[in-house]
Amino acid sequence: MSGLTVERYLAPAPPFTNNRRKKTAFHLALVRDLFKCARCGSRDELTMHHRKPQANGGKHIVDNLETLCVDCHKAEHHPEAA
Predict the structure, then answer these.
(1) Which parts of 1-82 fold into alpha helices (H)?
(2) The whole model's pTM is what?
(3) How many C-beta atoms surround the C-beta of residue 25 within 10 A?
(4) How many Å apart are CA 59 and CA 82, to the nearest integer?
(5) pLDDT tens track for 12-61
(6) CA distances (Å), 82 to each of 38, 47, 73, 76, 79, in order?
């Protein structure tokens, strides 16, 4: 299964790294979203969506993250294909 898994984002990381902050934010967003897609409720193939894209200055913070399944994430980025 590709995508987000709890084990993948809870793996230990060295302290004081951006990677650790990112993993912590991803984990907190997963907990907030109850480990399911915020749009359809699926628990399969979860990904993390940045509400404000990183290319536009979006950060890895909980308020900017949303747990989405692969299908909802594709629909978010490519609405014409949905």
Answers:
(1) 6-10, 18-32, 70-77
(2) 0.73
(3) 19
(4) 27
(5) 555 545 778 888 899 999 999 999 999 999 999 999 999 999 899 999 89
(6) 17, 17, 10, 9, 5
Alpha carbon 44 to chain centroid, angstroms: 13
Domains in the chain and their CATH numbers? 6-81 (1.10.30)
User: In the structure encoding, which two tokens stand for residue 43, read together?
Assistant: 């628990």
Cβ partners under 8 Å of residue 68, min gap 6: 37, 38, 39, 46, 47, 48, 49, 76
Q: Which token pair is 27?
A: 């984990």
